[in-house]
Amino acid sequence: MRLFNYGLFRLAVIAIVALAVLAPLVLVFYQSFLDAPFFQPSAKLSLDAYDFVTSDSDFWDAFANSVMLAAGMTAIAVPLGAVLAFLMVRTDLPGRALLEPLLLVPIFISAIVLAFGYVVALGPVGVFSIAAKDAFGFVPWNLYSFPSLIVIAGLMHVPHVYLYTAAALRGLGADVEEAARVIGAPPWRIALTVSLPMVTPAILFGGVLVFFLGFELFGLPLVLGDPQGLLVLSTYLYKLTNKLGVPSYQLMAVVVVAIVAITAPLVAVQRRLLKSANRYVSMRGKGVRSDLMRLGGWRWPALAIVIAWFTVTVAIPLFGIGLRSVVTSWGEGVRLSEVLTLAHYGDLWDYPNVVRGIFNTIGIGVIGGAVAVGVYTLVALVVHRWNSGWTRLVDYIVMAPRAMPGLVAGLAMLWLFLFIKPLNPLRATMISVWLAYTVVWFAYGMRLVSGTLLQVGPELEEAARVAGATTGRIQRDVTVPLVRYGILASWLLVFLIFAREYSTGIYLLAPGTEVIGSLLVSLWGTGAIDMVSALSVINVLIIGLGLAIAMRLGVRLHA
Amino acid sequence: MPDLVIDDLHVRLGDNDILKGVTFTVPQGQIVALLGPSGSGKTTILRSVAGLEQPYRGVIRIGNGVFFDGAKGINVPAEKRGLGLVFQSYALWPHRTVFENVAYGLKLRGVAREELARRAKAALAQIGLDHLGERYPHQLSGGQQQRVALARALVYEPPVILLDEPLSNLDAKLREEARAWLRRLITSLNLSALCVTHDQVEAMAIADRVLLLEGGKIVQSGTPTELYSAPNSLFAAEFMGANNRIQGTLEALTGTDATLRVGDRSLRGIARGVTRLGSSATGVIRLERVRLADGPGENRIAMRRAASMYLGERYEHVFETDGLSVRIFTAAPIEGGERWLEFPHDALWIF
C-alpha cells in the first residue's frame, strides 16, 4: 500500500499554483464590475466604474502617454541594444570582458533609485546641472520633460535588447560572416546586412519585451513625469488612490483591467516570438568561432559610445545619489567641503520603519528568495519531462502574472488578503509581500529553474527508472543533486530581483511590511530627500554585494 | 528464468508509426540482437520493453508476468519491471561514485547494508573493476565506464538485460575486445539479453539470434549464419556483409535455380523471390565469394581491373566490363589487365 501518490501530488501542486496566480486576477476582474469596494455589503454589479474611467480625460492622456513612452523607448533601446550586442560579441572592442557585467547593471538596479539619481544629478538644482550652469551660464537640458523621460527609459532598457541579441549572435556560425568578409564587406556592413538581419527574431523579441516593459514602467514616470503633471497608466493608477478621497477600488480595478488588456497580448506575442527566435538560431551556419572581427580605427569611437551610454545610464545617477547621500544640502553656491556629512546614514536608525525596511529587504531577498526558489523548483520538477497537457497549462498559468505590472500585482494581492477572511491576519506581514513577489516573478523563476533541470540528460533519469526508482525518488536521487549549483545560482538571481523590487510592495506597505523599495516611493512623496538618498545607496550596496557574490561564483546573470 | 515474449507490438509517435507489429521471443539464456538501419525501430523496441516508451497495441511479457498488454490496458511502469538496461551513453550518474552507481539498484530494493556492499563489490569484481569503486565516472576510461554501466544493470539480477548500442561509444580497437568480453560475460552468467545495434558485424558476433528490422517490422530472423548465408530479401542481403550488385533481367527459372541476363551474358544463381520471366532482377554476391578463374567457363566473365587497393590483411580490386563493375578480395597481389571472374552459382542470389 503506497501512502504517497505522485500523480495526485502533481495535480495538487498545479492546483495551488493556479489558485495563487489566478485568484488575484479574477478578483480584480470581479472588482472592476462592482460599483463599490468588494468588502462593502452594498456593492453590486455595475459598469459605472468603466463609465467613470473612460470618461476621465486624464485616463486617456495617461493611456496616450504610456503608448508614446513605450514606443519611444523601444525606438531608442532596440538599435542601441542590437549594435551593442554586435560590438560585444563579434568584434575586438577593447575591454569586453570588463564591460560585459557592467552592461547588465541597469537590469539589477532599482529603476526608482536611478530615477532619484537623475533628479539629484541632472534636475534643476542637480550636481551636474549646477556645474553646467557655472560653465555655460545655463543648463543645457531639462530633466522634467517628456523627451527626457523617453530617452532615459530607452537607455535604461538597452540591456534587455542586448541580452537577447547577444545570445542569438553567439549562436550564429562565423562562416556566414566570413563569407561576407571574403567577398569584401567591411565590419559595419556585415553587421547591418548579415549578422543583425540573421538574428532579427531575437531583436524583435527584445523590442516587444521593451515595449511591454514600457507599460509596466512606474518609478521613472512617477519621479520624472509627475512634477510636470505627466501621467502614464501606472502612475494614473497610483494617483487614483487619492483621487476621490474614499477607497476607489472599482476604478483602480478598471485601470488594472485596461493595463492587463494591453500587456496580456504582448506577453502572448513574446511567447510566440521566443519560439520562432529559437528556431531561427538552430538554423545557424556551421563552423567554429573564428577570430573576432577587427574594428581597426573604429575601436576607440565604438568604446567611447559604450562608455558614454554606461555613464549616462548608470554612472551619473549613481554618482548623483551617492553624493547627495553624504551632503547636508545642495544648491547653487554650495561648497562641497562645507556640507559633507555622514549624518543621513546615522539618522536612518532613528526611524524604526526604515530599520525594519532594511532588514525586511535583506530577509525577503535571502530567506524569501530561497523559499521562492524552492517553490519554483517544486513546480518545475512536477512538470519536468512530463509530456502532458498539464505541463502546457502550467506554462500558461505562470505567464499570467507577467501581464500584471508589479504595482498591479501588489494591489491584487492586497485585495486577495482582504477578500479571503482567513488570510486577513497575514496581510500586514512579510508573508503577503513574499507571496506577491513570488507570484510576480513566477515566470522568471520557473525559466531559471527549468532551464537548469533540462540540462540533466534524460537518460540519466531513465537509467534510475529502469533500476527501479519512482518519479519522486528519481528527482530526489538524480535530478536535484545534479542541478544543485544551478538552483543555488537561481537563488542568487532571485535575491537580486527581490532586493531590487519596489513597485510590488507599494500597496502592501504597512507597519511590518516595509521594504526599501516601497519605503523609497513613500518617502519620496514626503520630500525626505536626505533619507531617500541614503536608503537608495544602501539598496545599491545590498544589490552590489549580491552581484559581486554572483560574479565571484561565476553565475550567469541572465536566464 | 522464463522467456521474454513480445507479441504484435505497435508503437506510434505522433502520426508516425514506429513499430508496425513486431513479434519475437528472447529464450532464456540467449542473446538476441535487434539489427537495422537508423529509423527501423530497434531502439523503440528496446525502450518499449524497458517501459520507457508506451506501445498502443501488443503484448510484452516474461513468462506469465505481463509488462504490457494493449488489449487489457496493462502497462507496468519501468521502475516495476525489474529489467536491466545499459544505455548507449552509459548514463552513469556523475554525482555518484562507481560503487554508488552500481549499488543504487540494490538500495532501491531495500537490501541491507552489508549485503548491499557485498553484492555491489561482487558485481564490480565480475567486471574487473573492484579496485575503482571509489572513483567517479569521469575518472574512468570509456571502456571502464561501459563496464560499470553493465554492472549497474546486472547487480539486481534482472531476468533480461537490455543493451542499447553498447559498444558504439568505444573506439574501433576497444570495441572488438569489449565485444568478446561482453559475450563471454553474458553467456557465462547464463543471462538473457536483448541487444540493439546498427552494426551487422557486432550483431553477428554477440548474438545467438539476429532480428533484422526495416521500417518498424522484422524482415528476417535467424542465427547469424542463416542471416548471412541465406538472406530472404534484397534488403537483408545488402544489409549484411559487403556485396556486389548486378542488375539484369530474369531469363530462366526452374525451382530454385534462376538465370540472370546481364547484357549479352547469363549468370546462374539461386532464386530468391523472383517469379516473372523478363522482369528486372538484381543479383547479389558477397565480395569474398567472387573468385578469380583461370579461363572461360560457366558463370565466368572476363573483366578488366580498374583499381587495386591494399587493405592490410588482404587486397581489394575493382573489375569492370561494359556497364558492369565488380569488387573482389584476394589474399595476395594480382596481375592487372583482363582476368576471368567466377560467380559461383550457389553464392549468387537473384532477387
3D architecture notes:
The complex is a heterodimer of chains A (559) and B (351). By secondary structure, chain A is an all-alpha fold. In chain A, 73% of the residues lie in helices and 0% in strands. In chain A, helix 3 runs parallel beside helix 9. Chain B has 351 residues and is an alpha+beta fold. Chain B is built from 8 helices and 21 strands. In chain B, a hairpin with a 2-residue loop joins strand 10 and strand 11. The model of chain B has no long low-confidence stretch (mean pLDDT 90). At the A-B interface, helix 24 and helix 25 of A face helix 2 of B.
Question: Structural class of the helix and strand makeup of chain A?
Answer: mainly alpha
Distance between the termini of chain B: 41 Å
Number of helices of chain B: 8
Strand order of the largest sheet of chain B: 7-8-9-3-10-11
What are the main properties of this structure?
heterodimer; A: 559 residues; mainly alpha; 0% strand; B: 351 residues; alpha+beta; 6-stranded mixed sheet; 8 helices; 21 strands; 24% helix
How is the topology of this model organized?
The complex is a heterodimer of chains A (559) and B (351).
Chain A lengths: L5 H27 L15 H7 L2 H34 L5 H8 L1 H4 L2 H12 L4 H10 L9 H11 L1 H14 L2 H10 L3 H12 L1 H17 L2 H7 L7 H11 L5 H34 L16 H26 L11 H4 L3 H6 L3 H32 L5 H11 L6 H14 L10 H11 L1 H12 L4 H10 L3 H12 L1 H17 L15 H11 L2 H24 L7
Chain B lengths: L3 E10 L2 E11 L4 E5 L6 H9 L6 E6 L2 E5 L4 E2 L8 E3 L11 H11 L4 H14 L15 H13 L5 E5 L7 H17 L3 E6 L2 H7 L2 E6 L2 E6 L1 H6 L4 H6 L3 E12 L2 E6 L2 E7 L8 E7 L4 E3 L6 E11 L4 E7 L2 E7 L7 E5 L6 E2 L1
Parallel strand pairs in B: 3-9, 3-10, 7-8, 8-9, 14-21
Antiparallel strand pairs in B: 1-2, 1-4, 4-5, 5-6, 10-11, 12-13, 12-15, 13-14, 15-21, 16-20, 17-18, 17-20, 18-19
